[in-house]
Hints:
Helix content: 25-40%
Number of helices: 8
Oligomer: single chain
Radius of gyration: 19 Å
Number of domains: 2
Amino acid sequence: MKRNNQTKFVVAALAVGLTLMLSGCLQSETVVRVRPDGSGEVIERFTMAAGVVEMLAGFAAMGGEESFSLLDEADLRKRAERMGPGVRYLDAESVETGWGEGYVARYAFTDINTLRVNQNPSENVPMEGEEAEEFLTFSFRRGNPSVLEVRLPGGDESVANNDEAPSPDELAAASQFYQDMRIAVRIEVIGSIVSTNADHRSGNTVTLMDIDFNRILQSPELSAAVLGNQVGSLAEVQRLVQGADGIAVETKEAITISLR
């Protein structure tokens, strides 16, 4: 998010070393809902831990802002433009849970062929700096049934290993940034799925990714693999956690869904 008036408190946040904390203490679910004619909508649910939101509000007050909210409609409209031609912002509402605060935003698209969706929620975090871009792209052929191809971002195949395994203290320090973090991306058919080669399907919904980082933290092996390596993208995390209990990740570079 690029709020001109809030840049002051964002810079202050970075100055006290909050980059990882802000990036980690979040929960995100993105659902692409598609109709048999290739139109549809994107539903984006994003929340951050209550303590982090309170901290950001404090920095906003220090910067002269009267109020702070993760929901910024101007920014959401810009995000719709980045999703591709024909994508428009519909609406958004603030949400509060026992864990944190955030929003649910809705976007509409007329042709999924031109849609691209960033599976990495870093662009939702109110920080200045470069945003990670890991776009899902789509190809759609209308028919009976219609066929949708979903292409997943590849990431870097060569995840760098540390020369030395991280110590228990180092893993414990790193894990605090990822506690309660969860990221999910799904494709929902507004109609019915005739067939699909996706790894994870339930009814009319295909899950491309549902990573509960608490599951990773509960496993010494997964913690060492994810936190102990120089992982730079969600795609790399997906490769490292394939097959882990309680975590769903698509293993193919592209999947197809036949729908009507």
